[in-house]
Amino acid sequence: MSPADLPGILSAIEPEDFYYEINRNIYIAIRYLFENKITVTLSALFKYFADQKTDYRQDILLIMDCYAGPDIKPYISSLKKDSSFRKIKILSQKLNARADDKSESPESIYQEINSEFQEIFKNQNSDITTFADMATGDIKDMASHNRYFMTGFAKFDEILHGLFQTELTYLAARPGLGKTALALNIACNIAKRYTSGDVLFFSLEMPKDQLRLRAVSGEAEVDSFIIKSERFRSNEEREKAIQGMKKIDSLSNLAVVDNKFSMSQIYIESKRYASYKNLSIIVIDYLQLIESGIKNGTKNEKVEENSRMLKKLAMELHVPVLCLSQLSREIEKRTDTRPKLSDLRDSGAIEQDGDAVWFIYQNKSDREFDSGLCEIEVAKNRNGKLFNHDFRFTKEYTKFEEV
What is the largest CA-CA distance in the chain? Predict the structure, then answer.
């Protein structure tokens, strides 16, 4: 083993990976010498333990007799494996005790235990990657076409380049401007275009049958009330509705969940779904309705925790997350009702955690001229441009179209 190998060893192994206290303490001593820029030698180790009033001379010499040779990687792997087994055993005992106690919800126990399991395995291999490790030699691999999903609005996508993997996007508006409709339009468009992946839509505001009705109405361009009441004005209108229904019902890769209301339930269901399906995107309607795992916190603290968990979910599953959000009522009291990032309701964490923030905005002059005219404003875009784009929202069949 070369001294040049020492930094890699120290980054791969933690003191608790050693079962025996003597070995653990010797390793701590080696790390101390290295971090303090002291050459790791026998004499330096003997001096360190002498200062600690501990005599490990015989133990160090015994370890040297067991020197593994120049290739130490298999031994590091074996050490980490044994360490992981010990940690899993301890975690299993902890899980049994908490399950027997029954004072916590199964979801909260799962979420915490799952995080601890991930903590055990995240350091099995180093997370440090150099650009050289990432290199393939092909400039095409630098392109982002495999890392985002088009929204289905062509001109909008030309500027935006779609919804990127690992990114959390917030779509916010005041009530009645079509947040759910736009999110549903995008979900259907992605399900149609990317048939090899699934769209997972968490609907916390309306039941799944109502969401399906809206999707059929938009696809058929027939008023949702007419479809629901079966008051078709002609056979042609009825046929349009039937054809729209067939197209929507053929989207076997668009899954709707309407019975998961807590952050832990959304997190668990998303991870479970991704374990056997190829996820394209997660859509959540909407942030302020998600129940938090924080029992006694303020509304801001709960929203902040949920926002942080949504970003974590996007990173862990490597998918875009599109989450709807309310805007503050204070916006209606201003002369200029155009939304600002500070209008995001209940927490500054929404602005902070979101990689992108979109607003639906309709000014008074547009409303008087054409009740459907509106803008989608990309007010924050960590990896792209800020811009406004004109749309028309037809409420009767809950559909957005580019102007």
Answer: 96
